[in-house]
Structure formats: C-alpha cells, structure tokens
Design goal:
The chain has 11 helices and 12 strands. By secondary structure, the protein is an alpha+beta fold. The radius of gyration is 25 Å and the shape is globular. The protein starts with a helix and ends in a 27-residue tail after the last strand. Keywords: Nucleotidyltransferase, RNA-directed DNA polymerase, Transferase.
Length: about 325
C-alpha cells in the first residue's frame, strides 16, 4: 500500500491491477519443480515437494482426485510454492530495463524517448504494476506479464485484470488508493482509505456476533467483538481512516444496544444505562468495556524502499 502510494504520488499514474485466474489450481508442476531444482539440490527434498504436489485432493464426496497441476490449498507448502512460482514475475520486472534496477538517468532517458518505467508490488497472488507512461504502455506491459506467467501455466483474468488511472482509484489488499484534491486547496495528493469491501466485511462480522444467543452475558459478547474491532483498526490505522472508524463505532454501538434490548424486552433507557453502561452511554460489563474504534488515532507509514532496519541487534 505504501509503495503504491509513494510511486503514484510521482509520475507513476497508470496502474495494472493484476488478477491471476485460479492461481493455486493451475500452476504447472514441471515448471514449478524446475524453479525449485534451480535452488535445491537434495533429491530427498525434491521428492518430498513433488509428493506434496501429487498428493491429490479429497472431494466432498470423499473421492480422492488427482492433482496434475496447481498447489492444493490447505497443504503446508502451498503458500511457499505459489510464491516460488510467482517469483518469475518478480525477476522479470527486476531485470527489465524500465524496472527498479534502472538508475535515475536511465529512467529520465527512457521517458525522453517515450518509453515507460514501472514498479511491481506483490503480496502472494495479489499484485499491482505502477507505470510511468501512457495507458498504451500499461496495456503492453499487461500483455508482457501475461506471457511471463504463461510459462508457469498461469493466466490473467480478463475481467478482473484492470488498467486504472490513479485519479480513478483502485482497491488493493483492503485499501482504496486514489488521488484527490486536498480540501480547501487546489493541490492533489494520493490518499489511502479502507475500501468499502473491507468496511462491509468487518460490519458483517459485528452483525453476525450480535445476532447470537441473547442468553449469554454481555461480557461474552464484548469478548468476541473487541478482538475483531481492535484488529481491524490496527490494520487500517496507517491511513485516512478516521471517518471509517467513526462509522464503525456508531454501527457497533447500535448493534450492541439492540442486542441488549432484545435480551431485556421493554427495558427503559434509564435502566439499560444503569445496568450495562455505568450510567453513561458506552456498553461495559464489569471490567470488560467495548472497544471504541473512534478513539483510535491514525498514523502514516513512511516509505523506506528496500532500507528496512533489522529488528535484531548486531552481534559482535
């Protein structure tokens, strides 16, 4: 998210939003094993990896189905092997003349000659390519990437692989990233917000938990809600999230109050506040207080590129 925001704040205005069709199901076993053999020489390890790939999948009707392609989801090696397969994309972009290995002078020269520069951001099978160039350049790069992935037996989804200008905005890993005019000025900046889909997902979790058995004590409900609210706000804290946090606060409050009123039909507001809000308005049960998303202060990530400090102290 931070890397996309950093580059789109500059001249990388076109974005190829990549979507690989059935990524875990279509990886070529021969191509994947070829990449593994390039780094691993132990035949016992190679045999074990191949056994994982060929283990098969047990269907709902308890019939074992052969796996001639793909990495079965649920296998402990699937995340690692899918990253090994998709590293072909990382390497292609890293070695390309307009990729991150190009010097500043090289990038300026390419732009003077009408050639694009680009950067790749990938997390598992979700990836974005930001392009400093034109829409036609982005379309050409999309077709190049499709050819690179085809060597691993992978295909881009035609419907979901989009080419978007940063002014239109895009969703990536739960964030909505878009360039907008700053309120009260004529300057335009790239902002990151929680996406509508991400907000709808957490609202759905809150609603589901507040539909459970009303015979439970309020403490049990709050112990289920608080980790959800805390985790979601921690994830979206480094962004323009205050409005979303305020909405989540109001929605959760209404859901919990409605749960209490179903638990005690006909209860007065005065009695509800005395028993469940400490004569205030915020739900609590003993020492367990409902987490308040509206009090979470937002922050900003600073782009560090590849200069990420080690968390481990130097050992003499």
């Amino acid at each position: 998210m931070t890397e996309i925001r950093h580059f789109t704040s500059r001249s990388y205005e076109w974005v190829v939003e990549g979507d690989i069709k059935a990524c875990f199901d279509e990886i070529s076993h021969s191509a994947l094993m070829g990449r593994v053999r390039a780094r691993v020489g132990d035949k016992r390890v190679l045999a074990l990896v191949k056994a994982f790939l060929k283990a098969g999948i047990l269907d709902e009707d308890r019939v074992l189905r052969r796996t001639d392609a793909g990495t079965p989801q649920g296998s402990i090696l699937s995340p690692l092997l899918s990253n090994v397969a998709l590293s072909v994309l990382d390497e292609y972009i890293a070695q390309a003349s307009g990729g991150p290995g190009a010097s500043r002078n090289d990038r300026l020269t390419r732009r003077r000659h009408g050639l694009p520069n680009y950067r790749l951001t990938r997390y598992a099978d979700d990836w974005c390519l930001v392009v400093s160039g034109t829409r036609a350049d982005a379309e050409a790069l999309r077709d190049e990437i499709a050819g690179v992935l085809s060597a691993m037996g992978l295909r881009l989804s035609e419907d979901k692989t989009l080419i978007t200008h940063i002014d239109e905005g895009l969703d990536f890993l739960g964030w909505h990233i878009q360039r907008r005019r700053k309120r009260g000025t004529n300057r335009r900046y790239v902002y990151t917000y929680p996406s509508r889909k991400a907000l709808a997902a957490v609202i759905g979790k809150v609603k589901t938990r507040c539909r459970q058995n009303i015979n439970l004590p309020l403490e049990a409900l709050l112990r289920q809600l608080n980790p959800v609210l805390r985790g979601w706000t921690n994830h979206f804290q480094p962004g323009v999230s205050s409005i979303s946090f305020g909405y989540l606060r109001a929605f959760t409050w209404r859901q919990v109050i409605a749960w209490i009123r179903r638990k005690h039909p006909g209860i007065t507001w005065r009695e509800l506040r005395r028993r469940y809000c400490g004569n205030g308005w915020w739900p609590a049960d003993g020492d367990v207080i409902m987490f308040n998303p509206g009090k979470v202060r937002t922050t900003r990530y600073r782009y560090r590129g590849a200069k990420i400090p080690s968390p481990w102290p130097n050992v003499a």
